[in-house]
Structures are given as C-alpha cells and as structure tokens.
Amino acid sequence: MTATGQAADTASTTQTRLQVDDLSVRFHTDDGDICAVDGLSFDLGAREVLALVGESGCGKSVTATAILGLLPDAAEMTSGRIVLDGTDLAGLSRSQLRALRGSKIGMVFQEPMTSLNPVFTVGRQIGEVLTRHLGHRKRQAREVAVELLDRVGIPAPRQRISEYPHQLSGGMRQRVMIAMAIACNPSVLIADEPTTALDVTIQAGILDIMRSLRSDLGTSIILITHDLGVVADIADRVVIMYAGRKIEQAPVEQLFSQPQHPYTMGLLGAVPRPGMAAMMHGADRRLAEIPGRVPVMTAPASDCSFHPRCPRAADRCRSLRPELEGRGHDHRVACFYPGEEGGAQ
Amino acid sequence: MAVDPSARVDPGSLEPRVAVPGKGRSRRAQVWRRFRRNKTALVGLTCVVLFVLAALFAPVLAPFTYNQNFFEAVLAPPGGEHLMGTDDLGRDIYSRVLHGARVSMQAAVMATVLAMVVSLPLGLVAGYYRGAIDSVIMRLVDALLAFPFIILAIALAAILGPSLMNVTIALGVGSVPSLIRIIRGEVLGLREEDYVDGAIASGATDVSVLSRHIVPNLMNTLLVQATVMIPGNIIGEATLSYLGLGVQLPRPSWGVMLNAAQQNLSSGPWMLVFPGAAICIATLAFNLFGDGVRDVLDPKTHR
C-alpha cells in the first residue's frame, strides 16, 4: 500500500458503515463470569480497513461474533450498541439478523481447510449463499459463482466450480471462502485471521484480493489478526486490544512510527526485521518479548490490566484504570505513561 | 498406490493448479476403486447381490411353490428332483429357502429403513439443539435400552399379534435407541465444524444447516450403520420367527424352517442344514460387505 493510496482512502472514510459503541461481553462459566470484551468502541468508515490486533484471548474474535449476533449460549452482551449502515442491530428480530448475515456482513474464518463442506462442490456452496439471499436460480447462481471465483483470482473458474474442497489447496480454499463471503456484495467484511493458516506467498495473494475488494467494490473490512506484518501491509487504522479493552487506536503509519502504549511497543519489538540479527551481538540476538500472559478478566478492570507485564508500571497503574486519551490526530491511548519515554508525566 | 484424499491437497503449491481433465475424478469412482481392492468385501458384495436377487425373483427361481406338498417324497434327502431335499410335509426345501430369503430381506431392510426414519429426526434435534429437548430424548433412549430386546419384541408381538409386519416393527423399534445415540453423537461433532459456523454466519436457517450441511455429512455414518443393522435384523427376524412371533404358516421363513427342523433332527437333518446355512451365509456376507463399506467410507478408520 502506497502512502498516496492510503491518504486517498482515509479521505474517503467520512461515511460510517459500522459503529460499535461500548460493547461488553461476558461469558458465564462454571468458575464464574469472564469479561471477554469490556467497553469496546470503534467505528468503521466506507472503504476502510480496520485492524483489530491483540494476543490470543484478548477478545478479538468475540467482538466479531458479537457483531454477527452469533455469540455462543454461554456469552451475554451486557452492554453496547452495534449500528450497521444506520440500523441498530439490537432492534432486529432473529430472522432479520439472519437475513443480514451473508448479505450485508460477510465473514471469513481462520481455517480454510475445514471451513468448506467436504461433500459439496465449491460451486454449490457459493450458489447456496446466492440462492438464500438473492433468490438466484441454479444456473444464474452458477454463472455468478464463476464470476466470483474469477474475482478472487482462481484460474480456470469454470472447471474449479465443480470440484470438491479436498481437490483444492489451502490458499484456494481461502479464496473460495472469500468468494462466498462477498457473494452478496456486503458492505462490511469481517476477516478473522484470514491468513494465519497460510504460508507467506499465499498470504500476500489473499491480501491483494482484500485490497481489490476495497477499491473495486468499496467493501469495508475488519481484519482481526495478531500479525503486525499483515497490519502494516493493508490496514488503514489499527485498534490494539488487551484483555478485552481497547488500549490504543491510531492510523497505521502513526502507530508504527510513534507507538504510545508500552504494550504496543512490546508487540512491535517482538516483530523480526531483516538485518536485525546482523546488528545485534551475542546475548542480544533475541527478539524482544513481553513477559507473562494475558490475564483472564473475571470482572471489569479497575486498574490497568497490563500492569503486571509492564516495565513502566507505577503505583497509579495498580490502583487506577487509565482511560483513552488523545495523543495527536486520531490517535488515542489508554496509559498513564505513554509515548517514547513514558510521556510528559 | 494408496489414494488418501488428504494427500491430494498440496498446501505448498505456490500457484494454484489448473484443473487437469480426469483429475477431478468423482468421489463415487474413488470410493469404488478403494472398495474393489478389498477382496473379502467383494466376496461379501457378491453374496449380498445373490441373496437380493434370490429374494426378488424367488417365485421365478424356485422350481416349486413354497406350499406344494409331495406326499410321495416326505423327508426325501437332498439330490434328485429336490435339490435340498424335502421337509416333513413333503415340501421342497430349496424353494422354501428361496422364499425365506424374500421374507428375511423384506423384514431386515424394512426394519432398518424404519429405524432410520424414526431415529434421524430425533437424533438431529437432540444433537443440534441440545439443552432440555436433548435430555428428554436421551432419557427416553436410556429407558428403551434398559429393556432386553427380545422382551420388547415379544411384548410388541403380543400386543400387535404375530405377523411379518409386526416383526419388522419390533426389529425397527428395537434398533432405534442405539441409532439415535449414534446420530446424536455424530451431530454433536458436526455442529462444531467450521463450515457449519460458516453457513450460520452467512445467514443459513436451522433447517438449511441441518438439511444441507449436517445430514449430507451423516450419510456415510448412516450407510455404515445400515450395513451393520441388516445382518442383525436378519438374525432377529429368524429368532422371532423361530419363536413363532413372525411370519405365519404356511409362508416360509428361515426361522420357521429351523423350528420345524427341530422335531425332525434325526430323520431329516437337511431340514436344519439348509436354512441354517442360509442364515449364516447371508449374515456373514452382509458383515463382510459392511466392513468393506466402513473401510472406504468411515473417516475414522482411515486418513
């Protein structure tokens, strides 16, 4: 993604497609409640790629299922408003929500190897979505499915369409998954770690497709990932999550050049860079790591949940919860000691 | 050269392959190729086909009717005009064994179909929705499983009266509980599959998830179960007929013939040998065939 392209994209993100406001999700388990998401807010503009970034268990995927209205039985949305193209999803019936899924919101899952039904041809599976939402007849659905496969860069789509998933490679299956997700031209596409299970060259191809969706169809994309390389490659804006809360949000370049939260800095420090090994010597030839693990939140945080792992943790961090505060244009961070050297105290 | 379906996936290929004609061999052809390599299963299949043909064309194949008495040749030994001899009423055993195949197949297949038709919706509902409805269905299943099958069948026959139809119902109902368990277990696993989540995330209704994603993936399991249930039901029908609960005289069933043989063991042992052999061979054939089917279809035995 070039700098000019990004500037143009950010300029066009005036219209809000999806708005998530103060979303909180709790899981009721035998061992008590777990706060999976706590007061998360973000919005997604037209043609925008928003990356949700964080370690495993920080609430990224739960956020996605909450948007789709598919939280598991044990989970409860305790607060929050999700507005899609001006419609509050809370006010919709089950069947209205169902009609929305697959038509206005598309979803791509992490596991391309298991996300397709093994007993049907890919054409039939794509056709099923078209029949369901657009009422296409069999032949028409097949024609559109061929176009879709072509769009996601599958060569010889006319032959591929009558093949079974086991005849396709992982990258091809992920392309089929994307074709299914965009079949009804959704305004929002949620991609949950779409490239994690794929190797790097195929990953690049998938990201290319997502870029072309954004530019050709104007699709807005929520990209859930823990891969900062992918984020740098495609995202416009980044939301960093930790233990269910948003701790930093910034345009992608801003985030990479001036990370404010110590956790974000830790994440960036853990990314290997070319030439790094040559510059380091001896015992220092290791990637930086963040000690410890993401805590499991049993109640909404009353302190900074990152403090046990934070090199800057002070008394204040242990007793008070930092709220999001502006640090420059569209850059917000929840930390008492942000910035390069702990900020202007 | 084992063709493992997972081996055909090539995650390392950088560029998507272009379809090669013939490479998209249909699933059915693959299954048949694998099945053909299993010689014992082929023998089983051959016998199964012979039995089915015998059952279908018994009136044509049999030299006499099952009810024709040759009083001049009562308890005639095998050979000559009567290939398998005659019974104590001078009836041709070969003809009766052929007609017995008819009764046997009819009861076994119908009972299996009945069990499937009853179990499938209940197993689907229990496994897919879980919760209270699952508990209710499964407790009923437990209760049914607590009855010994024979007691259940005798009770049913006593209530409904002995007939082939009632034997079929008893056999079918008898295998419902275990079949529900199997289907429910399978559905519990299938509903966690990513493609089911995917279908739900793309707006599928429960009915379409069940009918388009779960049932088609259950088919292998059901087919394998059917090949196990049919031989069991053949024996079940013979048992109930032997006890006099099944098909009524003078129609022959292998079980009825065994019962008659009991009183003539010393004077006409062939009365026991041929229907007994028919039961053994039919059961063995279905089991061999079923094993072969399971080997090629059941994902748990390969891959």
Can you give keywords for this protein?
heterodimer, A: 345 residues, alpha/beta, Rossmann fold, 2 domains, eight-stranded mixed β-sheet, four-stranded antiparallel β-sheet, 12 strands, disordered N terminus, B: 303 residues, mainly alpha, MetI-like fold, 68% helix
Secondary structure: elements and pairs:
The complex is a heterodimer of chains A (345) and B (303).
Chain A: H1 3-11, E1 16-29, E2 32-45, E3 49-53, H2 60-68, E4 75-84, E5 87-88, H3 94-100, E6 105-108, H4 122-134, H5 138-151, H6 157-160, H7 170-181, E7 188-192, H8 200-217, E8 220-225, H9 228-234, E9 237-242, E10 245-251, H10 252-257, H11 262-269, H12 276-279, H13 315-319, E11 325-326, E12 332-333
Parallel strand pairs in A: 3-8, 3-9, 6-7, 7-8
Antiparallel strand pairs in A: 1-2, 1-4, 4-5, 9-10, 10-12, 11-12
Chain B: H1 27-36, H2 39-56, H3 58-61, H4 93-129, H5 131-146, H6 149-160, H7 164-190, H8 194-201, H9 206-242, H10 254-262, H11 270-297
Helix pairs in contact in B: 1-11, 2-4, 2-11, 4-5, 4-7, 4-9, 4-11, 5-7, 6-7, 7-9, 8-9, 9-10, 9-11, 10-11
* Average residue-wise pLDDT of chain A: 86
Tell me what portion of residues of chain A adopts beta-strand conformation: 15-25%
Largest interface: A-B, 47 and 34 residues
User: What global shape of chain A is seen?
Assistant: globular
Percent range for helical residues of chain A? 25-40%
Shape of chain B: elongated
The percentage of residues in β strands of chain B lies in under 5%
Please give the order of strands in the largest beta sheet of chain A.
Answer: 6-7-8-3-9-10-12-11
The total of helices of chain A stands at 13
CATH homologous superfamily annotation of the largest domain in chain A: P-loop containing nucleotide triphosphate hydrolases
Order of helices and strands of chain A: HEEEHEEHEHHHHEHEHEEHHHHEE
The CATH class of chain B is Mainly Alpha
